[in-house]
Amino acid sequence: LSPGAKMGCFTFIKVMMILFNLTIFLGGGTLLGVGIWVTRDKNSFLAIFGTLSSSVMQFVNVGYFLIVIGAILLIIGFLGCCGAQRESKCLLMMFFSVVMIIFIAEVAAAVVALVYTGLAETLLSAVLTPVLKEKYGVDVRFTDTWNLTMTKVHCCGLNNYTDFNDTHWLEKYGTYPEPCCKPDTGPCNATQAAESKVPGCFDQILEEIKTNAGVVGGVAAGIAALEIASMAVSMYLYCRLDEK
């Protein structure tokens, strides 16, 4: 290529790098703002987005999760955008390093998830089950959310009906939650719950993830491809700066 063509290619890639990372920066700022809002005013968030958001928030602290993701995207977008705009080798190298670290962490997490899936499920269940035992029947919002989730998903507890043993609900009412038994079987006692064999919500969620594994894998592959492309572009700009 002629020097003019090379310069034109460099300028085009530089502009695309700026626009791409500006989008990431604005998206990160939006997520950070929403995360702060959710953390500070959770009730308004639940009122606007309804029961689905409430169900999700029983498993994940959405506010802090959004703050972390938003902050990471802000840093990446800032480094990439400013590095390309100012043609700073230092910022471009920092951008490359941050994306590389995230990419390696994602690959490591994927490998661990594949190799230690059973162990991860056991540990997660061991952490969440005590919370269910402690709050169900005591915290009204928590109880209503779980009742709605179990009714909609057709599941019972995290693993099965035994998750409700030694709970305040069982001590107070002497029965298990209605979703733990088949409809029209009378009071949901231990016998009825055992015969109904309603699966746990944790198993249902995992089954849904496995059913949509293709979509999840496609999204993960798309994100990985974007990260690789971003690293390649930043390194191209970094190397071309030596030739200018």
Short description:
This protein has a domain at 117-229. The protein is built from ten helices and no strands.
Quickly list its features.
244 residues, 10 helices, mainly alpha, elongated, single chain
Task: Give a description of the structure.
The chain is mainly alpha-helical and 244 residues long. It has a domain at 117-229. It contains ten helices and no strands. It has helices spanning 3-40, 42-59, 62-85, 89-115, 117-135, 140-153, 168-173, 190-196, 201-211, 213-243. It is elongated and about 85 Å long. The two termini are 15 Å apart. This is Tetraspanin. The chain crosses the membrane at residues 12-38, 58-79, 91-116, 215-239.
Q: Ranges with pLDDT <50 over ≥5 residues?
A: none
Radius of gyration, rounded? 25 Å
Count, helices? 10
Kindly, what is the distance between the CA atoms of the first and last residues, rounded to a whole number of angstroms? 15 Å
Global morphology: elongated
**Percent of residues in β-strands:** under 5%
What is the total tally of β strands? 0
Q: How would you sum up the major sheet? A: none
Give the fraction of residues assigned to helices. Answer: over 70%
Mean pLDDT: 80
What is the topological layout?
Blueprint: H1 3-40, H2 42-59, H3 62-85, H4 89-115, H5 117-135, H6 140-153, H7 168-173, H8 190-196, H9 201-211, H10 213-243
Subcellular location: Lysosome membrane; Membrane
Main location: membrane
Transmembrane segments: 12-38, 58-79, 91-116, 215-239
